[in-house]
TrEMBL record:
Annotated organism of origin: Xenorhabdus ehlersii
Any Pfam family matching the protein: Aminotran_1_2
EC numbers for this chain: 4.4.1.13
GO molecular function: cysteine-S-conjugate beta-lyase activity; pyridoxal phosphate binding; transaminase activity
Known cofactor(s): pyridoxal 5'-phosphate
Keywords tagged on the record: Aminotransferase, Lyase, Pyridoxal phosphate, Transferase
Group of enzyme by EC: lyase
Family assignment from sequence similarity: Belongs to the class-II pyridoxal-phosphate-dependent aminotransferase family. MalY/PatB cystathionine beta-lyase subfamily.
Protein name: cysteine-S-conjugate beta-lyase
Residues annotated as domain Aminotransferase class I/classII large: 37-385
Amino acid sequence: MESPDFNQIIDRHNSGSVKWDFLNRYLHLNETDLLPMWVSDFDFQCPKEVLQALSSRIDHGIFGYSERDDLYYQAAIDWFSRRHKLTLHRDWFTSIEGVIPGLALLIQMLSKPGEGVIVQGPYYSSFAKVITMNGRAVIENPLLEDIEGYKIDYDHLEHILEQHRPPLLLLCNPHNPTGRCWDRDELLQLLILCKRYGTTVISDEIWADLILPWGKFTSILHLGNEWHSHVIAATSASKTFGLASLRISNFIIPDRTFRQAFNDRLNAHGLDVFNSLSMTAATAAYQYGDTWLDKLQDYLAENRDWFEQALASSVPWCRMTKAEGTYLAWLDCRNLGLDDNTLQQLLIQKAKIAVSMGYSFGDKGKGFIRINLGCPRQYLEKAISGLAQLTT
Ligand SMILES: Cc1ncc(COP(=O)(O)O)c(C=O)c1O
């Protein structure tokens, strides 16, 4: 198989892309000359092996009802064993077309209307959406920020656990938007506290495969069997291989009762039928995607290094948060001393880039922006020249 060329520019306009075609609908931006660096999907083609598998499946030509087969689950189990030294049992797996829909079902299943769900701010905005639109409340445990990066505030966590007794904590690991990978000790401390107050931890690990060379991913499931009745992990081939619109995810639920309840909810919503193309794509990705992913990770690490250096020399007011995973750059713009609306206007009018504004990640995001580095280097060059123009 030929080597992937991540520098290749592929026009994504008119492909139904949220990131490229729907800035108006989602961000209310009419400008047509903006470089989209917001939604977290990358601008690379997925591995050739995946395209070939999809092409053969399409040639077959029949798209009747389909089910996740053993080949898919085995490919996923082997992937986690190979890439993450994580032993998963077939029984624990259940699948749904997307992480966010699965989180919604779990929130409905494991909490009552009006109850709270803890998130670590700055938090991914879809977490807040899925919590509040299901009639639950967001309880924020803001991360502590220091020169080393972001840390979990355990004192505050204990305080809110005691005060609200929330049934759920929604963890993001690696963390969107900061790129932190929580280590074993951090996870253990969190689990000890949550268990003490009867709070189940749902760990959204959709970014688990996109780790930087200096980072290390630890799944909540690495912590061992003793925690299995208190944890659920969500993963997906979608973020790793750029398959988000095909809709697929794994919910790994070691606890039998939780798993049964989740499967019942899938049935209750008629979500027990699956898209055959997503399964074909994800199976091929898990089976044959290692080399492609290794190269992607190298490219993303180079992109990050390049961007950080370019910021330091051309955009001195902007500080990039140290990340261990993801292709997201969480940029501190507070040195500019601007309010978020003014910052947003300048990003559009002068820098000509569409970013995710930090305030959409809650109060802890004010004064920050999130930029997607999952793109050909040329786009980063454009973004840097735009940002350099912002203060002129
Ligand atoms: C932490 C996190 N969870 C879930 C999702 C989306 O998952 P899905 O598209 O499978 O619903 C994203 C996408 O950016 C994400 O960052």
